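Q: Hi! Curious about what Cation efflux family protein looks like structurally. Here's the sequence.
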Amino acid sequence: MEARAEAQRMSWLTLALWVETASLLWILAEAALSGFAAVRAGSLALSAFSADSGIEFVSGVILWVRLWWERGHPDHGWVDRVERVSSALVAACLFALAGFISFQAGQALALRSGMLESPLGLAVAVASSLITPWLALVKRRLGRKLHSHALLGDAACSMTCACMAWALLAGLLLQRAFGWWWVDAAAALGIIAFVLREALESAEAARSGAPHLHHHRSDPASEPPSANL
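A: Let's find out. The predicted structure is below.
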């Protein structure tokens, strides 16, 4: 019976690795395409979205290594230490990003400067608005199957990224429809609210060594599972 349960767990771990691999490839494409679009259009919102995706990629790589190591080794203490250091670095990068984009957004509002239209940026925002929530749902289900704090935390991060994508999409659509010069800066500030939340979560994970989890009373995925990966 135990052998069967372990085999099932290994099967779920393998699937989780494939999902994380797909997620990392999407995040990388998302960061590159939105970054290119940001440079072409001079968009603060796209810049913030691209930079956050790059930081999320680093965090995702750590989780991928964690899952890969768990599949073959019961002891993953060194991965826990690496994850803690990574959380501290991610938090520092996110706080720096929030400060920089906030300054740039304030400057753009003061100078009344907008952005050029970006069909590529709009396409990335639409794709991310659809793909990222789906990835979050799959990760959440696998996290529950594996009783994995780390995977549930990554699912919550993916959902936060989906919220960023929705904020970005709303800003780009409003700018395209009405040409409001201030929409890009406002959307960037909206994205920064999510970035700061991610930064605080990462800082707490680095300080306490606890898994990077978001806590929502209405979200069952945020409830602590019975065991850790």
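A: A fun detail: The helical segments are 2-41, 44-72, 77-111, 119-146, 149-178, 183-208.
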